[in-house]
Design brief:
The structure holds two protein chains of two kinds. By secondary structure, chain A is mostly helical. Chain A contains ten helices and three strands. The longest helix of chain B is centred in the first third of the chain and has 32 residues. Classes of the chains: A mainly alpha, B alpha+beta.
């Protein structure tokens, strides 16, 4: 998975490299080396550090785990082509362009990059692109062809525990999507502190990684996500997402992984 | 067409927001467009204009009225908790109504003067403050394109300092939220619904083309009133 590849900062030794050279030069001077040696040292100094080649951090555009027409008729191929091919790709390319100019920000995984560029509420310019790259990856994986229906087993039980019933959860999720002002996302998250599921609304590029909550599914409520298919009818889009698109399989996997970090109670060990 | 213009002129007295009193409670209504939906083509498509006006702006008006009604009920009961909860809905929907009411007046078909640069005091002020019209357009386009998410880009005048300003606001925040003395002259909606069906994700193209239907006459009138 290219997105999570760490790049080691092995080549940006420019400034520190040259200062080391200066130090070693000084010590040599006190030892009174011969003239030839001094000339050589000076030459190396003037040439500058050899290994100051620029390193680019590259994040790649990950494809959705299905073909672009696989979500028809609920999310059209045209929307996927625009949304993934133009918007998502644009975020990746712009992020890479920004990172080209900023040496201090490479070597991070995407999750780390988001937290660092969020800068505790005073986001750096890279934050928007980084977060939107992550958000869209998560979103494509939150859907599947033949999605919708209901979760089963543990996830369903947890939803029923935290929302009363699946119907109530579904209602609350759709309500959240309708009452979000402006651009943003609706999330089902597992709250670390409260050890329970909750629905979260975020604006623009913000995601639950900021608040250290664990996202389980997401719905993109930026207008570009639904306008071509549903125009202004947010309600229809949200309902279709719940009925036909949301991948409870992905949610189950994420939930299982989340439980490595959040203790939701006694494990149900089957008795032989 | 003439009747529509008449209605608009009459409602200008109520700031063009078109409200009427009913049982002591103010309700707002969707103002009519002073031109046909297709009149701004090809800069803005008729489909967008119709959706934008009949669906989006109407939704702001409806929800604004609903929030006001709920506010009225809560204030009568002394329910401060509910009042506080309603504030964001009021700002969002009220702002949406205000902003779009100005927006429709900011646009005009080419044959009614759309795109024609301002004469008079506003034209002079623009040249004086920004150097030229091109610089102003460039600045507004840059800021509009750079705006993350949804919002507006404005040309406004500070009525105290008598200076022109270019500002952006997010979501449906009105210009006055950036400064109590700011009066909007021109606003460009950069929410995706304002251009997506026609320009898709290429917001800069939308911004480049909208200047062909900008109604500088209206902006000039507002400016002349604030800076006589």
């Amino acid at each position: 998975i290219m997105m999570e590849t760490s790049w080691s900062c092995c080549t940006n030794l420019g400034p520190s490299g040259s200062s080391l050279l200066v130090t070693s030069d000084m010590s040599k001077l006190f030892q009174k080396p011969n003239f030839a040696q001094l000339c050589q040292q000076k030459k190396k100094e003037l040439q500058g550090p050899r290994r100051s080649a620029k390193v680019h951090a590259y994040y790649g555009l990950k494809s959705p785990p299905y073909k672009l027409d696989a979500l028809e008729p609920y999310m059209s191929q045209r929307t996927l082509e625009m949304h993934w091919g133009k918007h998502h790709r644009g975020y990746v390319e712009n992020l890479n362009k920004q990172l080209e100019k900023n040496d201090t920000l490479y070597g991070y995984t995407m999750d780390e990059l988001i937290k660092v560029t969020y800068n505790n509420g005073n986001p750096l310019p890279e934050f928007n692109n980084a977060a939107q790259v992550w958000n869209h990856d998560f979103f494509w994986e939150s859907m599947q062809p033949g999605g919708g229906n209901m979760p089963i087993f543990d996830l369903l039980q947890q939803i029923e525990k935290d929302f009363g019933s699946f119907t109530n959860f579904r209602e609350k999720f759709i309500e959240a999507s309708l009452t979000l002002f402006g651009s943003g996302w609706v999330w089902l998250v597992l709250r670390r502190n409260e050890k329970r599921l909750a629905i979260l609304k975020t604006s623009n590029a913000i995601n639950p990684l900021i608040s250290a909550d664990i996202p389980i599914i997401s719905l993109d409520m930026w207008e570009h996500a639904y306008y071509l298919d549903y125009k202004n009818d947010k309600g229809k889009y949200a309902n279709v997402f719940m009925d036909h698109l949301v991948s409870w399989n992905a949610a189950t996997v994420r939930m299982a992984r989340a439980q490595a970090f959040v203790n939701l109670g006694e494990p149900k060990i089957p008795v032989a | 067409m003439a009747l529509r213009t008449l209605v608009t002129r009459k409602s200008l007295g109520n700031l063009g927001l078109g409200f009427r009193q009913l049982r002591g409670l103010q309700t707002y209504s969707l103002p009519d467009l002073p031109y046909d939906y297709g009149a701004l083509e090809p800069a803005i498509s008729g489909e967008i204009m119709q959706l934008h006006h009949q669906k989006h702006h109407q939704a702001y008006v409806t929800n604004y009225n609903k929030a006001l009604e709920q506010l009225d009920a809560a204030t009568a009961k002394g329910d401060s908790h509910t009042v506080a909860k309603l504030l964001s809905a009021l700002k969002f929907n009220g702002g949406g109504h205000i902003n779009h009411s100005i927006f429709w007046k900011n646009l005009a078909p080419v044959k009614e003067g759309g795109g024609e640069p301002p004469h008079g005091s506003l034209g002079w002020a623009i040249d004086n403050h920004f150097g030229s019209m091109e610089v102003l357009v460039q600045k507004m386009n840059t800021e509009g394109a750079a705006l993350q998410g949804s919002g507006w880009v404005w040309l406004g005048v500070d009525k105290e300092l008598k200076t022109l300003v270019v500002q952006t606001t997010e979501n449906q925040d009105p210009l006055v939220s950036k400064g109590a003395n700011l009066v909007p002259l021109l606003g460009i909606d950069v929410w995706e619904h304002a251009y997506y069906l026609q320009y898709k994700n290429v917001r800069p193209d939308y911004l480049k083309n909208i200047w062909k239907v900008i109604n500088w006459k209206f902006a000039g009138e507002v400016y002349a009133k604030e800076c006589p």
